[in-house]
Amino acid sequence: METVFFHVDMDAFFASVEQMDHPEHRGKPLIVGGLGNRGVVSACSYEARAFGVHSAMPMFQARKLCPQAIYVQGRMHRYHEVSKTILSILATFSPAVQQISIDEAFLDMTGTERLFGKPRVAAQLLKQKVREETSLVISVGIGPSRFIAKMASDYGKPDGLCRVAPGKELAFVDVVGLKKLWGLGESSLSALARHHITNVAQLREYGKEYLQRTFGVAAGEYFYQVCRGIDPGIYSGDSKSHSISTECTFPVDIADQDILHQYLLRMSHEVMFRSIEEKVMGKTVGIKIRYADFTTTSAQETPDKPIYSAEEIYQTACRLLDQRLTTGRSIRLIGVGLYQTRIGEAPLQEELFEDNFKRKRELEKAVLSLRAKGRNLEKASILQQRGPSAEIDGSTHS
Amino acid sequence: MKFACQKNILLKEIMLALDFTSQKNTLSIVSNVLLETSSNKLIIKATDQKIGFMTELDVETIEPGTTTVFCEKFLGILRTLPDENTIFEEIGDKFFIYPDKKSINFELRTIPSDKYPKLEEAPKESFFSIAQQDIFDMIDQTIFAISDDETRYFMNGVFLEHSPQGLTMVATDGRRLSLINRQLEESISAFEPVIIPAKFLSLLKKAGSGEGTIFLAITDSIIFARLNHQLMYSNLIKGQFPNYRRVIPANQTNICKVSITEMNEALKRVSLLVENKAKRIYLDIEAGGVTISSEESDFGQAKEIIPCDYLGDSCRLAMNYSYLSSPLRVMDGEFFLICFTESNRAVTVKPDPEKDYFHIIMPMQVD
User: Fold this and answer.
1) What is the predicted pLDDT for the residue at A390?
2) SS3 A172
3) Do residue A145 and residue A205 come from a single domain?
4) What pLDDT digit, counting tens, does each position of B68-122 carry?
């Protein structure tokens, strides 16, 4: 059966929600973001984009370009609410909806033709339904893979509808161009440029072996696939897997690395204790960072060996955080999670050599059982924690 | 500089040299190969500053001199040229390549050789000799078991240790381990154990023929190898190799004898339906035969029964199929033994009759 994927992108999402809630703002330039001196634009309406404003631009620059715009402080709570409503509409079209971020999702539409008609007709229907129920505009990209669908939704935005038929992937990636090819950032582009590769067709001339030797095994493989329109499989992770995570919003934004590490330490313990309680082991450690301007990023790492102890979660989380810290950029929320968990107290693949962390897990188990008996035990380095106390809320997702 | 030689003589050496140059940044001098000619000799040097290569061959020196050119392109050109007497000449900052008789003309940009990093000097005295066949056997039996995880860099290479009658080589990725202990006719003076990067060992195999001898010298931080007219070296991996002796199982009472070919064939078929990430297969070992099966997946399931010699109780083992198939691929003889105690303890795989190598596999959870 032919696979069909939709990529749904909510156009100028935060700004559109503001315009939906405030009809008087409709048709006017509107900018959402941190309104302070160091704020950054997190979203702007298409009317504002006409003035050259774009997301991630410093707020003072946006004010210069478009002083007459309506400026709104972000209301994340409300955006989440609307995002949920839209997701529930998407869920009526496909049993396999995969949310990528607050304003993006993939739908596996394979085999739905009898229900909703041809892909293009189904997409029209979906767009119409979202507009009727929320008055919001979405762009839909249709392709034989998530990779193609994702880039197709970017085509003809806002209110776009673009279908790339099976067999047309190659022609499509050529038109999209190297710069807009999904997953190629500035560093990849400059690495390719050093080898005089500046367009997709040139990239395609090189064999996989050459690309892997030149750019590394993973990057080479990735380049080889994307220039042929083959899905490299970024978002095809197993959605059935279970995760344990916790996040923490600070009362005051924090930029100090030491204080952030202290929080990570406490949260790593919380996550590990919960995984011990639930008798599961995780394979991947992830962190989530929301900066003061509400831009949110996440990162994950899957170590080569099993994760036994809170200390291992903490070390990985710190490393992931440090790679994303820029001086002066403060953070309002961090999260730590354990992903790809499996039930059982032993990893799928045991190790030959004794692992010191395995013993630490035993220690953590002992601490946990003492706590259950009412003893208040805490790791000494957690007690030294500086900084204001914050609300930590944990969550378990299935 | 200017020299002439039969193209294929040079091609062979440049093919080897390429692997010793850096392939990350084409504009860097370490992506270049150094050529130096005088008194009818050509010296070729290549290094990415971790590994190095030097060779010498007979050419006709027309004008002595030295330069460096981008190795990958140089090799590409040599590959396509006809095999005949060819002239190589540097004029200004260009390196010209043209066959004697045809009107083909290549020019490559050069970088002056005084900027080329100095290669390590081999110690004169401390080389010992070993048959290529022996060292290559040892490499074949172990190299696949190394780890490619950079955070466990000390497992990214093969451990080499002096043993009373010869040499021991061990490789592990922390979940399986391969060991070979080769007795050698000539005695070798003792040296501190080292970890040799896997890349160097595969380059050694590429350069050798499997016949004749190879000369090795080991210092605290570098291993040198001399082979015909070539000298190669590599930095050693610093770090503590895990104490492998402690994980070698003793007294495994359950022993199952299976045909190597039959197991290989069965693994090839069953692995088609194995889940790609964990690569888990099940071995149900019973007196009547070994059942090799995959887990039920989205695609389906595979199962195959092959005959075996086994007297113990029925037992189910789960393991990464590649941990079993890669040692079997390099095992000689007709039969091999699967030795184990229980389903969650290390399993030993070795040829029957026993030879000087064996492989240890940590099983996976059976559930």
Assistant:
1) 47
2) helix
3) no
4) 999 999 999 999 999 999 999 999 999 999 998 778 889 999 999 999 999 999 9
Identity (one letter) of the amino acid at A202? Q
Q: Is A277 a catalytic residue?
A: no
pLDDT exceeds cutoff 90 at A124: yes
Contacts of A195 in chain B (CB under 8 A): 26
Cβ-defined contact of A352 to B278 (cutoff 8 Å): no
Q: Domain check: are A197 and A151 in the same one?
A: no
Q: Note the pLDDT of residue B56.
A: 95
Residues in Cβ contact with A101 at an 8 Å cutoff, skipping those fewer than 6 apart: A296
Question: Do B108 and B6 share a structural domain?
Answer: yes
Q: How high is the mean pLDDT of chain A?
A: 84
What is the least distance, in Å, from the CA of B316 to any CA of chain A?
Answer: 15
Domains contained in chain B, number:
3
Contact criterion met (CB < 8 Å) for B365 and A305: no
* DSSP code for A374: T
A373 lies in a domain?
A: no
CB distance B151–A194 less than 8 Å?
Answer: no
Q: Which residues of A touch B23 (CB under 8 A)?
A: 213-214
Q: Please tell me whether residue B169 adopts helix, strand or coil conformation.
A: strand
Instruction: Select which of A104, A270, A312, A364 is catalytic.
Output: A104
Region of B84 (left: φ > 0; alpha: ψ -120 to 50; beta: rest) is beta
Residue B24 Cα, gap to closest chain A Cα (Å): 6
Task: Spell out which residues of chain A touch residue B243, defining contact as CB-CB under 8 Å.
Answer: 353
A349 close contact with B: CB closer than 8 A: yes
Tokens of A113: 């033709």
Question: Per the structure, how many domains does chain A have?
Answer: 3
B175 and A351 within 8 Å at the Cβ level: the answer is yes
**Adjacent-strand bridge partners of B85:** B6
**Token pair 């850096």: residue:** B22
Q: Which of chain A's residues have a Cβ under 8 Å away from the Cβ of B171?
A: none
Q: ipTM more than 0.90?
A: no
Domain carrying residue A193: 170-226
Q: What percent of chain A has pLDDT over 70?
A: 89
User: How does pLDDT run across B297-339, given as a tens digit for each residue?
Assistant: 777 889 999 999 999 999 999 999 999 999 999 999 999 999 9
